[in-house]
Amino acid sequence: MSTFSTSDAQVLVLGATGKTGRRVLQQLQARGVRVRAGSRSGQPAFDWEQPATWAGALAGCTSVYVSFQPDLAVPGALETVTAFFAEARRANIQHIVLLSGRGEVEAEQAEQALAASGVPWTVLRASWFAQNFSEGFFQEPLQHGGVLALPVSDVAEPFVDIDDIADVAVAALTEPGHLGKLYELTGPEALTFAQAVDEIARASGRPLLFMPVPAEAFRDEMLKVGTPAEAVDLVLYLFATVLDGRNIRPADGVKQALGRAPRSFASYARAAAEVGTWAAPALG
Question: Which of 6, 58, 88, 241 is the most buried (most CB within 10 A)?
Answer without folding.
Answer: 88
